[in-house]
Amino acid sequence: MMSLNIMPNIVTFNVLVDAICKEGKVSEAQGVLKTMDKMGVEPDAVTYSSLMYGYSLRSEVFEARKLFDDMITKGCKPDVSYNILIKGYCKAKRIDEAKQLFNEMIHQGLSPDNVSYNTLIHGLCQLGRLKEAQDLFKNMHTNGILPDLFTYSILLDGLCKQGYLGKAFGLFRAMQSTYLKPDVVMYNILIDAMCKFGNLKDARKLFSELFFQGLLPNVQIYTTIINALCKEGLLDEALEAFRNMEEDGCHPDEFSYNVIIRGFLQHKDESTAAQLIGEMRDRGFVAEVGTATCGSR
Length: 297
Hints:
Family: Belongs to the PPR family. P subfamily.
Order of helices and strands: HHHHHHHHHHHHHHHHH
Structural class: mainly alpha
Pfam families: PPR_1, PPR_2
CATH class of the domain at 1-110: Mainly Alpha
Strand content: under 5%
CATH superfamily of the domain at 1-110: Tetratricopeptide repeat domain
CATH architecture of the domain at 1-110: Alpha Horseshoe
InterPro entries: PPR_rpt, TPR-like_helical_dom_sf
Keywords: Repeat
CATH topology of the domain at 1-110: Serine Threonine Protein Phosphatase 5, Tetratricopeptide repeat
PPR repeats: 9-43, 44-74, 78-112, 113-147, 148-182, 183-217, 218-252, 253-287
Distance between the termini: 67 Å
């Protein structure tokens, strides 16, 4: 470009820095920054944000914070950069610093958006700090920020992983009374948790509800239900669900086959297990070591 006597401008440099940083190659991006300096091109908020994102990907939040402070010193508006840095702190499990930055953002007269809230709620849930996550969720409503599907999914997942199924189910129903409608991901979170905690009855009700909501279960949901049915010894129902999966246009994968085959083997039905092993091999799937032994007899 420069060989043609065409000088790159800030937009050109920003595209380059962004592409490099998304690959986590921040040292190369810093080299571009030096070139900009030599050419008299001043980095702007976009440049700094891209670099901060690159450092955050590598959990190098100290370097990201230094860039953030440099950006402020040079008079650049930090709008999006706050969210990038908050995410960086959460990724590094430095949640208290993320909260401090969130509060600093408000103090500077900036309004946190869905991304700000979702990032911090996710970070708190990851560390099991559900009370704080729920308080932040309520704070969203207070400040007129409407939670989106991702917000609800994050909180649902956090509650389920800690075994608070009642609270999770209550949140799920509360969301259904809003303008939002649950998606397959949310059903998957709840059904998986209910199966893991032995509540197959309610898991099956939710599974049936999916169809009434005009949603189709994905392979993960089918496999979760099939696994739970197998553990309860309900092999006929497990096989029926397995066959229905394909009829509904959801093709079983290698994991699905191994789950149902393992279920039949654990309940001494080697004949059906061998039949399913033959099927999976015809489809090019590989049986687990324990299940493959049965199929070779």
